[in-house]
């Protein structure tokens, strides 16, 4: 897990909606955070693979945080637990 992963999860949790990669990039830009589109594009599939986000629409690739992702953010699930899966 990286700091970018945490911020992606936090933004999805804060927004409460499904966002696509471009929307994530624009929101990070607006917040003055340096998380590039290529980073978002690279990290979302990994976050999906370990169950922290889910793709809710194929067309446009919209993602939302899962309950497992929320548990990770609140500290109920440790990053080391994710590596075992």
TrEMBL record:
Record-linked InterPro entries: RNase_R_HTH_12, WH-like_DNA-bd_sf, WH_DNA-bd_sf
Residue ranges constituting the Ribonuclease R winged-helix domain according to the UniProt record: 8-71
| Gene3D superfamilies per record | Winged helix-like DNA-binding domain superfamily/Winged helix DNA-binding domain
So which domain of life are we looking at?
Answer: Archaea
Q: What is this protein called?
A: Winged-helix domain-containing protein
Q: Which organism is it from?
A: Halorussus caseinilyticus
């Amino acid at each position: 897990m990286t700091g970018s992963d945490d911020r992606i999860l936090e933004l999805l949790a804060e927004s409460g909606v499904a966002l696509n990669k471009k929307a994530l990039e624009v929101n990070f830009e607006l917040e003055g955070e340096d998380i590039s589109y290529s980073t978002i594009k690279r990290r979302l599939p990994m976050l999906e693979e370990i169950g922290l986000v889910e793709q809710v629409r194929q067309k446009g690739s919209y993602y939302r945080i899962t309950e497992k992702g929320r548990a990770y953010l609140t500290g109920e699930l440790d990053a080391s637990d994710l590596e075992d899966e």
